[in-house]
Amino acid sequence: MSFLTTFLVNNLYSATAQVSRQEIRGVWMTSNDFNTLRDRTKVQNAVRQLRELNFNTIYPVVWNSGYVMYPSAVAKREGIQPFVLRGSDGHDILADLINQAHRQGLLVIPWFEFGFMAPQMSELALNHPDWFTQKRDGSQTSISAAGEVMWLNPFHPKVQEFITNLIVEIVTQYDVDGIQFDDHMSLPREFGYDKYTTALYTQETQNNPPSNPEDPAWMRWRADKITAFMVQLNQAVKARKPNAIFSVSPNYHDFAYKFQLQDWLAWLDKNIIDELIMQVYRSDLQSFVAKISRPEIQISQQKIPTAIGIMTGLRNNPVPIQQIKSQVRAAQERGLGVAFFYYESLWEYAPEPPDKRQAAFKTLFANPALRARVE
């Protein structure tokens, strides 16, 4: 009995320690955080504070609205970016963040925000109109969280080559720990009626695309094409950095597939996702708990580190710390990590003073949970 008890306790401790090492405690750094990111001293203070509060991962934006946030030969070659975003003393913002974060033991996983979305007046849209897809009525835009946007055609080989080149550039040019794709590495179901895609669909199925964008076979064909591209993208990343974390931060699966053709459960099944952070931006705790209790979360937890994306506030919509605490606790009770959107709203643009917010995070993350560096 004594031997059995010792065996069980030791193995329980080992399993608990393993889970602890894998626990995601992250924060996204968005374009709204540029005033912090451009200043070396502010970055140093930010990562030191995050480390003191037992965070372990930073997700800095590197692609947004058709532009990159680092010096990019790929972007320059395509003529899409006539400027280079640099820090206050002319330094490389991403390189500085990575260097300072690694000194503090934090992982840095750059975030490819907005995926295939780009504004109508971006150089990308103006220089490469044939790279974009359209709805059946010929219109090319949709309304999103980023305003009115166009959508790159995820089925077009030139688009796939461009995106792949950007991602490969990031993982080879910088000492990153991985790369992350969000809910916009997808396509609204109304799109896909451009000449290239309709011809490809007809060639492969001997049928014209259905007039109904919700047709099950038409949706499945497009979703599978996006999945196939994500497999190729994973292979390209792993060929350069085999241990890089291929991270995905989608919406819950029913919504992601039904409205955005993003079948991330298929990505999980194909073993191309190394960590999952499902966005659950809701103020109602009951609704929040319902979403984080969905079957796909439990499936993900059995395979990879899994976390929940929690809203900590927007400039025009601050979130009270009590809401944040209740959601983090609900996630922790289910063995889930968390990532917060976004850095500036952790304790700035908040209803409570910064010291009170920071004390709350210290309570939520009472013990360190460092993640192993990717080599």
UniProtKB/TrEMBL annotation:
Entry keyword set: Signal
UniProt xrefs under Gene3D superfamilies: Glycosidases
Domain Glycosyl hydrolase-like, residue spans: 23-322
Signal peptide: none
SUPFAM superfamilies tied to this protein: (Trans)glycosidases
Organism per entry: Fischerella thermalis JSC-11
Protein name: Glycosyl hydrolase-like 10 domain-containing protein
Pfam families (alphabetical): GHL10
